[in-house]
Amino acid sequence: MVSDLLREIRFLAKDRGALFWLALAFVLSIIAVTFGVTEVRDQQRTIAELIEEDTADRANALKGQEDWGGAAYYAFHLAYAPPSEFAFAALGQRDSSPWKHRVRMLALEGQIHQADTKNADFGLVGRFDFAFLAASVAPLLLILLLYDLRAAERTARRHDLLVATAGSSRKLWLPRALVRVLALSLLLLIPLWAASSLVGTSGSVIIQASFVLVGALGIWWLIVELISRIDASSSVLLTALIGLWLALAIIVPALAKVAIETRQPLPNGGEMLLLQRETVNDAWDLPKEMTMAAFLEEHPEWRDHAAIEQPFEWKWYYAFQQVGDLRVKPLVDQYRAARLARDHEAGMIAFLSPTSFVERSFEKLAGTDAASMIAYEDSVRDFHAQLRAFHYPMLFREEPFDRNLLEDIPGFVPSR
Amino acid sequence: MNKIFRIAKEEWRLWLRSKVIVLATLIVAVLLTTTSVLTVNRVASEQSQRLAQQVAAEETFFAQPDRHPHRMVHYGHYAFRPPPPLAAFEPGVDAVTGQSIFLEGHRQNTAMFADTKAAADLGGFASLTPASLYQLLLPLLLIVLGHALLLRERESGTLAVMLAQGQSGLSLATGKAIALLAVIAIFMLPLIVVAIHSVLRGENALTAAGLVGSYFVYLCLWGTIVLAASIILKQRAVSLGALIFIWLFAALIVPRLAINASSAAIDAPGKIESDLVMLAEQRKLGDGHNAADPAFQQLQKEVLEQYDVEKIEDLPINWRGVVASFSESELTDLLNIYAENRMEQEASQSHLFNLFGLASPAIAVGSASRSLAGTDLATHHRFLRESEALRFDFVQSLNEVHANELSYADDMNRSSDPEAERRTRVNSAAWRVLDEFRFVPDSASDRMNRAAFPFAMLILWLVLAGAATFLAARRVRV
Amino acid sequence: MTSPLEARSLSLDRDGNTVLDNVSFSVAKGEIFALLGGNGAGKSSTLLTFLGFLEPSGGAVLVNGKTVGSDVASARSAIAYLPEATSLYGHMNAYENLDYFLNLAGRSATQADYDTALDRVALPREARSRRLQFFSKGMRQKTAIALALLRETPILLLDEPTSGLDPVAIDEFHDLVKDLAGAGQTILMVTHDVYGACQVADRVGLLRRGQLVGSFAAEKGKRIDTETVHAAFAEREAV
């Protein structure tokens, strides 16, 4: 077997057509990885700057405050999801879902849906990242490398001589194709490995990613192998393979997407927001006891401190903010559940499309999949809850304002 | 001439006899038709839904009870962007940007609930739209059909016979070109139907025709490239491989690389980032809620002088309303500087991206198509600007009510005195200050102007490819 | 002693057509057997059946006494095959082609071995390092024969080996084939060249529409009489 492989490596080294596709794969991989690393560094720098600016802005906002309510009102807090150490390979949902927020103690639902995303054209066309290269372009390159291994020899009337000399088909085609598949995999992976060691990606992530890529190329190899057994001309084979690629890479995912999104409808975001806004605004005109009663259902611990005597009190103000959040919670939960359900079903469908599977797997490894973005939003919600937990005792027990205690306001800690 | 049509007819006969080609063509035709029907229906329902939401938002605003006018400033309003008729063919950035925006005092919000954020994630390709099928799939079909147009004659030896009979390479190529042109013409039909449908729903006929024209030029360009490959290259498999390579680059790789490049070349800060920078400046302006802020000393002096009184309590108008109006205006100026700056950065990113149309006709046709359909970034930016104008207008109108119809003393005491609080509520008839907002697509000439540059790139591509094909066809030898 | 090559009542169908019909013959060690026939007589199919590319629909083919169908690989390893219109790789030179194909056959040889083989087929030294796409048909044929020599198989199958060669090259080739047979190699060639077959073969079989319709053997020390075979060939074909 080793001598077969060596023979086919020497053979490949003289095949200029194949070398061209392989070189292309290598160059594209370098480009994809370089842009990925640059983008991630950019995002990291942005976050570092934001943290600095955010701290300065909060300090400034708190400087003139004289009560807990005002401090909570004016202090914004930065929340963010730092890119993982593998995000350079798959930027995934980071281009369409927000990964940074500035929130304060007001109703969260009015704040968390703000989308600080990039240029809309970017989201429309998509980036050339490694995941895209591995999922969509690499199979095409593999097809171009393998489709006429047999057919070209038939056309050149060399096929029978080759097989008769080799004794069995396997002894010839297996190493010949294997060398190409391995070369393609390696040339794609080497830049990825290099970048990973540069940014310090964990070994297990790299191993998993490499397995996903090689496995997917293996499946495409199998597809090419089965198709190219058909005794047809090279161009018919290539047409058939490109057709299959289109079906698996574009049409199946697109149809599945329509089906999933019809099956799992989302609550209308606009209505969600409108309801929250109405609840918060209506509270100004409602008897304050009603608001406080609704609030106390969630926070019975403040029952003894819930009497509102003034036309305006901060604790009432923050209570109706939370009541606004509580009011839309069913819708919000439904929205979140629908997103997760969509993601789950997309995960199942992805088994039908190697392209989707690779891209989703990479996003998962990189923490840029829908689930990770939802987890980030959850962490923003948790953080907001911490802010409330910090401020409520001050507001309800009417603790005297103590500037020194402001230092203990919880800060957002990213989960990774 | 007769001979040329004869050649074209032969080509068609051959195609119709090939199962692979007939099957491929049928699949593409079915896909194109279903996608068109689905998208037309979806866009039509979204359009009526958003219009209804816009009307409903206005009605809820008007239906608000009597209350303090500043409360209405915070109550806020919504602006919706209904898709233009041609979005049925080219939904463009709509899915990415979100189509509704919440408008309130002191803040410029982003458009929310983009479809893509909650979409089922199945990988790199956006969902299928008629436009993306025209951009990606039809060139591929032309490649499958045409990669051996002339090459086939060479392979079967009939080329020598034809040339020996006195046919010129040029007339042979013309015949083949006509055969392919007929295919293109047939596949233009779904687009023409969608375009006519959009004209019936109020689209300008010229832009609809422009859209049809852009895609026709685009497909002809691919036809020309395919024909050139079949003339220049000597082996079927090589020709097919080379064309697929060109397609791979033009349709998949270059557009995404162009995105990478323009995002790396021009750094457009996100909203949070630019907001933070702005907040630092805003602090210098003072807080509109706090009329005693030192930043308002200057304003106070001027207003007191204007009304010739000593104290703000003696003013015939409500000082707090004056402050709110003043600071809203100052803040909006500032916000707009940053918003404009951000939009300019994004526009220059997109401009850079469009320039890559020189490397990939798919980019050029995409830009032309989004501009003509009114679903491009520029239209989204205009939506942001118009909704901002709407926001500023209603906030300032409410501030005017605040200044003119409330007494300063009541306004100061409303937090502690329930009676004063009651007196600060104004009659809900005042909410009628809100303007009706109906977002309409850009004028036909604006859209045509924006599409002119990418369209010119397409023409340039076609001329270059046509010239190369012409030269190659003239030099056809056995 | 078993014959290296034997066809027993061999019948073959391809796409519903009868290609070979109850053909029986055997080739002894060191013998040159030429199957002679017109276009579509089933000559090449016979060779492909011995190589296991085609399955007999009746009867059997045996290589070294073993049915081919049961162990295709060992049959192929005993056979060197020279297809019609030999095409080795055009983008490689003679040495590289020999190296590639020998390795494929699971053998190895030195540069000296290559030169010895190429000397035997009289391929000019200066041509050996040039790519085969610049070779004439005769030179490509010589390279392919050199490959067959290097494989040192007991059996050699030749498919129209002299078509397209000039008369001098044909003579050289015939001498070489006789040498090989003299050294003990068993040779089965198929051709439509009556003269060539009679020149080189120990025995000639006449194949017509899938049936073996005649056989002519050389008498001791003499060649087969071309006139007789030609008359039979022409007569049979005319029927």
Concise synopsis of the structure shown:
The complex is a heterotrimer of chains A (about 425), B (about 475) and C (about 240). Chain B has about 475 residues and is mainly alpha-helical. Helices cover about 70% and strands about 5% of the residues of chain B.
Textual characterization of the structure:
The complex is a heterotrimer of chains A (416), B (478) and C (239). Chain A is elongated and about 100 Å long. By secondary structure, chain A is mostly helical. Chain A has helices at 2-13, 16-63, 68-74, 120-125, 130-146, 149-155, 159-166, 169-199, 203-227, 234-263, 269-282, 288-298, 314-349, 354-366, 370-396; strands at 77-80, 100-103. The model of chain A has no long low-confidence stretch (mean pLDDT 90). Chain B is mostly helical and 478 residues long. Chain B folds into two domains: 2-43 and 125-265 and 466-474, no CATH class; 69-122 and 266-453, no CATH class. Helix content of chain B is 71%, strand content 3%. Chain B has helices at residues 2-17, 19-62, 69-75, 94-97, 130-146, 151-156, 158-164, 169-187, 189-200, 205-232, 236-265, 271-285, 297-307, 319-355, 361-373, 377-405, 408-413, 418-423, 444-474; strands at residues 77-80, 100-104, 107-112. A three-stranded antiparallel sheet of chain B has the order 1-2-3. The model of chain B has no long low-confidence stretch (mean pLDDT 88). With 239 residues, chain C is α/β, with parallel strands linked by helices. Chain C folds into two domains: 5-78 and 153-238, 3-Layer(aba) Sandwich (Rossmann fold); 89-152, no CATH class. Chain C is built from eight helices and ten strands. Chain C has helices at residues 43-50, 72-77, 94-104, 111-120, 137-151, 167-182, 194-200, 226-238, and strands at residues 5-14, 17-27, 32-37, 58-63, 66-67, 79-82, 155-159, 186-191, 203-208, 211-217. In chain C, strands 6-7-8-3-9-10 form a six-stranded mixed sheet, with helices on both faces. In chain C, strands 2-1-4-5 form a four-stranded antiparallel sheet, covered by helices on one side. The longest helix of chain C is centred in the C-terminal third of the chain and has 16 residues, at 167-182. Chain C is globular. The chains are: A mainly alpha (416), B mainly alpha (478), C alpha/beta (239). Chains in contact: A-B, A-C. The interface between A and C is medium-sized, with 22 and 27 residues.
